[in-house]
Design a protein that fits this description.
By secondary structure, the chain is mainly α. The protein has one domain. The chain is elongated, with a radius of gyration of 33 Å.
Length: 120
């Protein structure tokens, strides 16, 4: 028997609710961490603010999100540069020119100079 006046069933129920709350909180933090690279700092704050996290934890998560954004930006930049460097522009423009006609239209107008503005 329980000595604190609570039944063992009630203690187990409270323990399960605590585990469920912790599990749900961890899921939200993980989800926020994964999606933080695509969120603004303010939206991360509002999302995590609902969970009543300590200020220190929130700061660590925001710093981690900023670092993740920087890493993703750098990697994407490197990948894009790498892809562009592999493109042979002369070859691609040559293929384009072989399959397309170029039509250039120009209009030329010749005007007589105004004699008063002409100085000899």
């Amino acid at each position: 028997m329980a000595t604190d006046g609570q039944s063992p069933k009630k203690s187990e129920s409270d323990n399960e609710e605590g585990k469920s709350l912790l599990s749900e909180t961890l899921k939200k933090v993980f989800t926020a961490g994964v999606s933080a690279a695509f969120m603004t700092e303010e939206s991360i704050r509002s999302y995590l603010g609902e969970m009543k996290l300590p200020k220190e934890v929130l700061q660590v998560l925001l710093a981690s999100a900023a670092k993740s954004k920087d890493e993703i930006t750098q990697r994407m930049g490197k990948e894009i540069v790498s892809m562009i460097q592999k493109i042979d522009l002369v070859k691609e423009f040559s293929k384009f020119a072989e399959n397309h006609k170029f039509k250039i239209t120009a209009e030329v107008e010749i005007l007589k100079k105004d004699p008063s503005s002409h100085k000899d």
